[in-house]
Amino acid sequence: MATETHANEHQEGEESNEPAPAPDELGALEETLLAAILAALLAATTHADRATNTAEDAARRTALLADALLAAADHTPLLNTITTAIRRAARAGADRARNAAPPPPRDTTPTTPGPDDIHRFTEDLTPAANIRFILEDAARIALTLPADRLPAHVRHTAHRLHRELVTAIHKVANRAVAWYARIFGHDLVWTAKAGACPTCTDLSGTVVGTTAGFAHEGADPTVLDRVPPAHRWCRCTITPRPRTRRR
Ligand SMILES: [Zn+2]
């Protein structure tokens, strides 16, 4: 008889059924969010793709499609996926920061953000309201479109939703990095990915103190928040770097 062990049982409470973090966890979360968005838009996609024979049927199809877009805002699996992704993004950011600049030996300061920390990283973000706004807008537009543009309209809506949520998880992850850096008084280095926009490419390699934040000329202050993302789809990261003393 095999003996089962339960070393990891309930170690992470509600997260115990989630898979282990991927090498690039934010990339994996982006894919998870896209899959959840496509699932939430399945009914809308089906209506968009359905052929119609009469003008009456076409009008009915468009009305059903608009209703399906609105209903996606209340799609429970999507909303749950968003909640989980944001929490995991916070932990992924802290993990990334800890790997880049590990705590000093024997330092026992907690370096995994707890519920209160995650609340602070996310309290000004309203992803559920934002996706509802996008879906209401998309439903309104759908009613004005000719039939042949409906499939592309649903795909574009998925893209808008994904952009919104991807930007949110990167924002939360970078806030967690800044939180970690602040604990140890580290500087932060901005790193842009290859192919980033000119603004982000210029910022890449910039080092600043954690209280000063990054100065962005022309950046939208409501989006920016002094850490990446500097704009939608921005995948820039910040990395803590121990401060060097100058005399
Ligand atoms: Zn960027």
Explain what you see.
- There is one protein chain.
- It is elongated and about 75 Å long.
- By secondary structure, the chain is mainly α.
- The chain has nine helices and three strands.
- The protein has a three-stranded antiparallel β-sheet.
- The longest helix is centred in the last third of the chain and has 35 residues, at 150-184.
- It has a domain at 24-102 and 111-185.
- Helix content is 55%, strand content 5%.
- The termini are far apart.
- The protein has helices spanning 25-40, 42-49, 55-72, 76-100, 115-122, 127-142, 150-184, 198-203, 221-224, and strands spanning 187-191, 207-208, 237-241.
- Bound molecules: zinc ion (ZN).
- Residues 192, 196, 200, 228-230, 234, 236 line the site of zinc ion.
- Zinc ion binds at residues 192, 196, 200, 228-230, 234, 236.
SSE order, one letter for each helix or strand: HHHHHHHEHEHE
Helix content: 55-70%
Q: List segments where confidence is low: pLDDT < 50 over at least 5 consecutive residues.
A: 1-22, 212-224
Instruction: Give me the Rg, rounded.
Output: 22 Å
Percent strand: under 5%
Number of helices: 9
Number of strands: 3
Strands of the widest sheet, in order across it, are 2-1-3
Give the ligands present: zinc ion
Distance between the termini: 68 Å
Shape: elongated
The class by helix and strand makeup works out as mainly alpha
Report on the biggest sheet: 3 strands, antiparallel
Mean pLDDT: 84
